[in-house]
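Readers of this paper often ask what the protein records in our data store actually look like. Nothing more is needed to write down the fold, since each code stands for a local backbone conformation. Below, we set out a record of this kind in full and without editing:
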Amino acid sequence: MEKPEGPLLPSEPHPKVSIRHLDYLNRPKILVLMIGTISFAANGAIFPAFGVLISSVISLYYKPPAQLKNDMRFWAIILVVLIIASFLVTVAQKYFFSITGSKLIRRIRLMCFDKVVHIEVGWFDESAHSSGVIGARFSIDAVSVHATVL
């Protein structure tokens, strides 16, 4: 009699899951992923922009005092705008990637639960396949996927 397929036991080796497969499972949330990716790229551009801004501010100190006062106001406003943009982009990045990660984990848990529900009843008679072991496995796998996605 063949061993029925089901969730892996903790002693069994974990199968390699490709990022491509996770991308396939995340396909329904592609728009949210794109917004998160754009936010991620904008967040990466913030620090070089800060560097250019600081170098421009430092160069102002070599100008006459009348021009220094006007230029400093301009660069102070630009600095405040850049700080607000940095805050908004960071929040957007975390928010959109958290949404996609949570939906992916939910989808994976539902797929695993569906597999467990359709396994033969005799498989659950073994102590290694108790509800506690299966629940722990769902939790561990979800945390692993969550760490990979985020």
